Input
Amino acid sequence: MAGALDDINVVDLSRVLAGPWSTQNLADLGADVIKIERPGVGDDTRSWGPPFVSHTEGDAQDAAYFFCANRNKRSLTLDFTTDKGREILIKLIAQADVLIENYKVGGLKKYGLDYDSLSRINPRLIYCSITGFGQDGPYADRPGYDALVQAMGGLMSVTGEPDDVPGGGPQKVGVAVVDILTGLYATNAILAALLHRAKSNQGQYIDIALLDVQVAALANQSGNYLLSGSVPQRMGSAHPSIVPYQPFTCADGHVMLAIGNDGQFTSLCRAAGQAAIASDERFATNAMRVRHRAELLEVLTPLMKQHSVERWCELAQQEGFPCGPINTIDRVFRDPQVRAREMQIQMNSPSYGALDLVASPMRLSASPVSYRRAPPSLGQDTHEVLRELHYSHDEIARLRDSGVI
Output
């Protein structure tokens, strides 16, 4: 079956994670994504190791980081700061549907690669810029990285243990979550722009900022502040508005309880052999449990230590309350549900051999995700793309000899 975007051509001028995450989503949905990389260097993440993946021929290596966000793309090495390189890039953009870039504000204008210039060449072009702080405002010229934005955007203020707890203090999330969310918002915006173009026949400019995304993704924490005036604090893995909703120590490890309503709390108490707790007026409703959080934890903490992780998970299934193990990543990929959903895939690469990768979580019945190309080695598809632009073998050889590709 054809992919939903199999007639869409994307020029990817982005590096690192937010932009490549977006273009990988588009590629998984069928788009032809051409990733533009610097000759001899490539995407920054090719060097962000160890661990590294070795090339099947020679000593070349690329960091494992690169492989998480560059599936289903073609790699074209191109120095677009040269006249010949810029000529090639503009030929690609002239027939493209989408361009995505994450250069500093105004950084591409001197090459004639800004939206105003390119929209005159291709009025149907959807041009998506990803920056740390957006195209305007007092911080527009600042470089922005995930960890910096987690700090400035409030996420680190609500992540980690309180200051008065051993090991307390602000922490960043263990994954570059702002980059990933930015990539997803960018994908949503691009898809919306494609729908708009189908009706209007006009492209448009999309301005996506990491800080904007982080502020939007504060979700209930920002809502709690804006509607109550109370500034959220770090609570470790506990939830500010739901109790019990946090990890607990068991006889042989740890589980996560995620009790979302009063019925589930009653089921938990029954499983713990203490059904009366649920009728205690201090704990009968979630609002009361939040108010009496400390007292409830004094009761629950020793009860949770009575059983093993496996036993608590069994009781959760029997009684109907959310509880699960806190898995290390190796256990995640051994989990029977993860295996049943086929979230680990293997792709064969002409450059790296067999690669174990994470699948896309998007499941479409009529236009499913496809896995057509393993993440490319640097410049792997340069000759192929240039031949499609009608460059001869001799012209390609001269471009290579001159360092343009």
Summary: The chain has a mean pLDDT of 95.
